[in-house]
Amino acid sequence: MSLVFKKSxxxxxxxxxxxxLPHGIRFGEKDITxxxxxxxxxxxxxxxxxxxxxGTAVFKGDFVLPKYRNKGFLDYxxxxxxxxxxxxxxxxxxxxxxxxxxxxxxxxxxxxKFIKNFRYTFENGExxxxxxxxxx
Length: 136
Known about the structure:
Layout (H helix, E strand, L loop, with lengths): L2 E5 L6 H7 L11 E7 L2 E10 L5 E9 L8 H16 L5 E6 L1 H9 L3 E9 L5 E8 L2
């Protein structure tokens, strides 16, 4: 399997964005957008919002097409974004994540730490979690 994770734009990821929006995943003009290709097929995307170059960034906009889930793609996108930040924003101190329940364990395995539950509760009773990565 050939994986390519590259900086992209919202236009290239437009179809994925349309599929992600009904799930509450939001994207902004200031986001740094990445696309994930598996064997030249666009299968996922992820974003970073830089709040301040020597302070905080936010991982957001993680989305993998349903038929490609549970294959390690989210894990791969997390690791690649952490590497990107180390190289391009060496003074960054912290990365925050608003983690959906299905992504929680993946972030924790990659070193994220729990901050708090949000008030928002999903239909199944689970809550959105605020996590952070430090010591990039």
